[in-house]
């Protein structure tokens, strides 16, 4: 199958499975989305969604967040991974938003990635889901599946993002990256590959990846 046909099969299958999607992290505006995405690093979305209501009940905007101490933020978010670093990042970026952006989340990759604890993936999620700017955030699911489907070589998330942006139409990026994540969670997990359920990998699968994944 030619690569363009693989790409079309992926898009058609995902659209049939997930015609309507929403980001799995609970939020109400760009600021709460930014904080939720920051918290989600090395932690499941489900766990983040149990923590953010507690945090946002105390502070759902940068002005209220800086009224808390780093220690108070840490106490609330302690169940998530890397909590001490994330608590400092949340406090620090809230200060910067107030001092440099009038309390608003900036609408540029450069400004977002300049904030404490905000990397390219976090900035991409905020730009795509809060502001509608085309982006293709690559998480572990997307990185795994792009290689598993023979659409990227799996060498790095940077390469995976480049390949995804090259192969998929720009107007599909913001929806498609969520669709791939949902598919990875439901049908194509990192361990225990089951080709009877994983219809995309069964059709497109990179044979070396399949053999490796079956052994896990």
UniProtKB/TrEMBL annotation:
Catalytic activity, as annotated: 2'-deoxyribonucleotide-(2'-deoxyribose 5'-phosphate)-2'-deoxyribonucleotide-DNA = a 3'-end 2'-deoxyribonucleotide-(2,3-dehydro-2,3-deoxyribose 5'-phosphate)-DNA + a 5'-end 5'-phospho-2'-deoxyribonucleoside-DNA + H(+)
SMART domains registered for this protein in UniProt: ENDO3c
One Pfam family recorded for the sequence: HhH-GPD
Cofactor: how bound: Binds 1 [4Fe-4S] cluster.
Top-rank taxon: Bacteria
CC cofactor: [4Fe-4S] cluster
Residue runs in coiled coils: none
Gene3D superfamilies reported for this sequence: Helix-hairpin-Helix base-excision DNA repair enzymes (C-terminal), Hypothetical protein, domain 2
Keyword Membrane included in the entry's annotation: no
GO molecular function: endonuclease activity
Residues in HhH-GPD domain copies: 39-186
E.C. numbers: 4.2.99.18
Entries under InterPro entries matching the protein: DNA_glycosylase, HhH-GPD_domain, HhH_base_excis_C, Nth
Swiss-Prot/TrEMBL keywords: 4Fe-4S, DNA damage, DNA repair, DNA-binding, Endonuclease, Glycosidase, Hydrolase, Iron, Iron-sulfur, Lyase, Metal-binding, Nuclease
Role this protein plays: DNA repair enzyme that has both DNA N-glycosylase activity and AP-lyase activity. The DNA N-glycosylase activity releases various damaged pyrimidines from DNA by cleaving the N-glycosidic bond, leaving an AP (apurinic/apyrimidinic) site. The AP-lyase activity cleaves the phosphodiester bond 3' to the AP site by a beta-elimination, leaving a 3'-terminal unsaturated sugar and a product with a terminal 5'-phosphate.
Stored PANTHER family: A/G-SPECIFIC ADENINE GLYCOSYLASE/ENDONUCLEASE III (PTHR10359), ENDONUCLEASE III (PTHR10359:SF18)
Family in the record: Belongs to the Nth/MutY family.
Entry protein name: Endonuclease III
Organism: Capnocytophaga haemolytica
Lineage of source species: Bacteria, Pseudomonadati, Bacteroidota, Flavobacteriia, Flavobacteriales
Primary gene name: nth
């Amino acid at each position: 199958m030619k690569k363009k046909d693989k790409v079309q099969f992926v898009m058609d299958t995902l659209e049939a499975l997930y015609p309507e999607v929403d980001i799995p992290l609970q939020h109400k505006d760009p600021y709460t989305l930014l904080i939720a995405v920051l918290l989600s690093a090395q932690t499941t979305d489900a766990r983040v969604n149990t923590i953010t209501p507690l945090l946002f009940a105390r502070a759902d905007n940068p002005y209220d967040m800086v009224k808390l101490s780093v220690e108070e933020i840490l106490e609330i978010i302690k169940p998530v991974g890397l909590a001490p670093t994330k608590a400092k990042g949340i406090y620090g970026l809230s200060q910067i938003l107030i001092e440099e952006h009038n309390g608003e989340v900036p609408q540029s990759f450069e400004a977002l990635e300049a904030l404490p604890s905000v990397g390219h993936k976090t900035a991409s999620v905020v730009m795509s889901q809060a502001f509608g700017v085309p982006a293709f955030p690559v998480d572990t699911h997307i990185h795994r599946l792009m290689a598993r489907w023979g659409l990227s070589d799996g060498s790095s998330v940077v390469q995976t993002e480049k390949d995804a942006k090259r192969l998929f139409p720009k107007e599909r990026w913001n929806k498609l990256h969520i669709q791939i994540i949902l598919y990875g969670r439901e049908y194509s997990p990192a361990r225990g590959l089951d080709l009877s359920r994983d219809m995309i990998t069964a059709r497109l699968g990179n044979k070396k990846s399949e053999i490796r994944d079956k052994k896990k």
